Amino acid sequence: MREDNLTVGGGGFGHGFWGQPTSSIDWCEENYVVSHYIAEFYNTVSSLVIALFGLYGAMHWRSIGHEPRFMALWASIICVGIGSALFHGTLLFSMQMMDELPMVYAMLVWLYIWIENETETPRKKYLPAFLAAYGVFWTFVHTYLGFATIFQIHFGLLVVAGYTFVGRFAFKTQDPRIKWFSVLYVAPFVLAFALWSTERIFCSSVRPFQFHAWWHVLSGIRFVGLPALCVA
């Protein structure tokens, strides 16, 4: 049971290499206009920016030798970028799951890191198991239902929770560098969300600007300051 082919402003189901789209949502960008092999060209290419920033973070992390939980975060970000490219490139439901599920996994890892950093007695014994179990539960629920709107609300709540930790930390710290990195992490995503929302509401009017592609780019840029925040 899932929604099929929920358009956002009539992106259009053009026919291309991957055939009829099976995803539960079709974004504003017109399909198969630039390439016969890529459904949403600009959304696909811009998704790789997220993967590149994830790779940058992983290489930086490896060079300074920090804990596996941080490498797990960067690995999940890389998976988000690759999964997003696969989804937008094909508009297949299976590839949609390769995009949306890693987004949730990345936020669960992010929340784990912040909860560990915030508490006076870190290394919560059952926290990783609980978050992993929740991730498995969500995987089955979302794969079966596939409701785009429910996913967006769910992911939004996870993001709000994560940014709540960042905001509290930025407010308490006296280190100006950390405050700056907090702004660098939050501001691009706020702008990205504004563009994403604008495209959803006014798709036909703003389609030439490819706001969803900019959502990807800005979402990647925010990871520049992430290493400093993680170990602060």
From TrEMBL:
Topology with respect to the bilayer: Multi-pass membrane protein
Cofactor(s) essential for the protein: Zn(2+)
Residues annotated as binding Zn(2+): H88, H212, H216
Segments crossing the lipid bilayer: 41-59, 71-91, 97-115, 127-145, 151-171, 178-196
Predominant localisation class: membrane
InterPro entries per UniProt: ACER
Location in or out of the cell: Membrane
Keyword presence, Phosphoprotein: no
GO MF, any single term: hydrolase activity, acting on carbon-nitrogen (but not peptide) bonds, in linear amides
Keywords, in A-Z order: Calcium, Hydrolase, Membrane, Metal-binding, Transmembrane, Transmembrane helix, Zinc
GO cellular component terms attached to this protein's record: endoplasmic reticulum membrane
Tagged with keyword Nucleus: no
Sequence positions that bind Ca(2+): D26, W27, E29, N31, E40
Domain of life: Eukaryota
Biological-process GO terms, alphabetical: ceramide metabolic process
Family: Belongs to the alkaline ceramidase family.
Name of protein: Phytoceramidase
Species per Swiss-Prot/TrEMBL record: Salpingoeca rosetta (strain ATCC 50818 / BSB-021)
